[in-house]
Glyoxylate/hydroxypyruvate reductase B (Paenibacillus antri), 327 residues
Amino acid sequence: MDHGKPKVFAAKRIPPEALAYLEQYCDVRSWDGDGPIPRERLLAALADAEGLLTSGDAIDDELLARAPKLRAVSTVSVGYNHFDLDAMRRRGVVGTHTPYVLDDTVADLVLALMLSAARRVTELDAYVKSGRWERGQPEAALFGTDVHHASLGIVGLGRIGERIAQRAVHGFGMKLYYHNRSRNPEAEERYGAQYVSMDELLGESDFVVLMTPLTPKTERFFRKEHFDRMKPSAFFINASRGRTVDENALVEALATGRIRGAGLDVYEVEPVDPSHPLLAMPNVVTLPHIGSATAQTRRDMALTAARNLVASLRGDEGAYVVKELRS
Ligand SMILES: NC(=O)C1=CN([C@@H]2O[C@H](COP(=O)(O)OP(=O)(O)OC[C@H]3O[C@@H](n4cnc5c(N)ncnc54)[C@H](OP(=O)(O)O)[C@@H]3O)[C@@H](O)[C@H]2O)C=CC1
Ligand SMILES: O=CC(=O)O
């Protein structure tokens, strides 16, 4: 232990190279229990900490009040909806995240969800493995939907959305629509993306991909009226956050055949309840929030988060401070 170094607490296990980097500059204590750290343990650990490395812990007023020395919070994620931005601003706590390093990995997963849902990969995998594949069955029972040359509507064409666009347009020859609050001229140029209203996007797209951050503005913003405007043959893909969608409306749209299917990496409550109706639907592909979960990308994210924390505590340039907290 070095008394000259700032005390930081790592509330999640991080790979050795990220830990080694952090230890060069900080006096590090880490949570080494299985699963997420219990809230009370986290609050106790923060009593004298100047920095916190976390992933999903709520950084709210209660936590900040119990961490009087805290100056910087670094999340090992690009999403930072667990930050209470007002409380952090009020208390002068810097918040950083890990954009860019995970874009391609998450985009790969979104394509996997689109392909799996459209070509019924998980449903037909279960069909083969359960011994139901027999000669003489009507072929059409196994038919799916083409992804190539179909139309894709991305709601939230940002860093990850652009990597999805690149794969969809250049790899699969898809036609691309998008809707953000502001236009993305580079993406229009690179991918021939057409900026359209939500109504137009929903009416034109064979695949609707939701990729916005979760903010007070996007909380449950995709709801019944949106599913009602989609093509009945279309697929809904969500890899943003579960709470951007009214999940009951999604269940209803799927159960009534308003839409053909869905591919989901995220849920309103995670881990999703095993009795959730979405899990019983063969036309829904469900994954356990693994968008960025490859060993390499998780290593890169942890290292970025460690660098962010050190830079924030030293007052150096170069940390990925979340945009709402930049000075
Ligand atoms: N499933 C997983 O494991 C992962 C999920 N994610 C999620 O993906 C999100 C997006 O990440 P990333 O691409 O890096 O973020 P970006 O900020 O680069 O992109 C987000 C896009 O959403 C648009 N947007 C924001 N608010 C709205 C709104 N109200 N209506 C329409 N569009 C909106 C923004 O454009 P504009 O500002 O012009 O509206 C922007 O283009 C993360 O915040 C996270 O929640 C990320 C990584 C992994
Ligand atoms: O959901 C993951 C993230 O990085 O955000």
Notes: The chain has a mean pLDDT of 97. Residues 86 and 287 are 32 Å apart (CA to CA). The domain at 103-286 is CATH 3.40.50.720 (Rossmann fold). Residues 77-79, 102, 291-292 surround LL5AMS7Z (ligand 2) (CB under 6 Å).
